[in-house]
Sequence to fold (289 residues):
Amino acid sequence: MNIDLHIHSVYSDGNLTPSQIVDVAMEKKLLAISITDHDNIKSYKIAKEYLNQITREKGKNNLELIPGVEINTLWNNKEIHILGYYMDLNSQLLQDLLAYQQHARSEQTMLLIENLNKKAKIKIKKEDVLSLVQDGGSIGRPHIAKAIANVGGAKNIIEAYNKYINDKSPVYVKRKTVSPHEAVETIYESGGIPVIAHPYDLEFAEDIVKDLMSYGLRGIEAYHRKHSPAMIEYYSSMAEKYDLILTGGSDCHGHNKSSKQLFLGNNLVPEWILQELKKEKSRLEIASN
Fold:
């Protein structure tokens, strides 16, 4: 059976609700999933309640739901994403970090809107963006790009991205976010397993991994839909070298608008990955007692 430990819902930049994600996962007979929204953990409770409802109605359920998150961080002007699994979702450390991240997203959005109005003469308001964000969800680039297109500032979302939502754009503002070291340490101190996400887009990934290990990094996302078999082998060897676990997922954001493709559960993430993740969680629990 397959697993998928990297999925996004409407609470960040995905287009499926937590309940829809559960439905798709059960339809595809997945063994386990983790909804890892950007800087947001609201989807877990909703998905868990829905899964419990299915269990009560049908009398059984074979899908395991693992608490997860993906923290967007910056280090040396490079965006690095840190996945977290099995954290105590009530941890004050985690709650404080997520609150900081949400504030940073809101602040970035306001500054970007100001620049769009002044520099690009695109008449856009905060409400134009917030109306596209799920209540309690994380504001992201897709919401801003769609808002730009909606007010006529671009022909479509892709053009909005290319013109305004990138580091080279004169109107773009970088987010004041936490470092990967802070994210790793917070997840670890909250009883979770910190994992570096999709390292394919990181230069000097091994150097970053070694650096973050001293803050509690415990895994590498080797299985990802953008990782070739050679990449999987490379990151698997790196994990073995540094005694780290492997994780993996589709990084599904829902239905692809152009192709209607749904990546959830499509890439092969073997069942033994889940067993290693559980062993690591047990090891951390024993070490903390």
The chain has ten helices and eight strands.
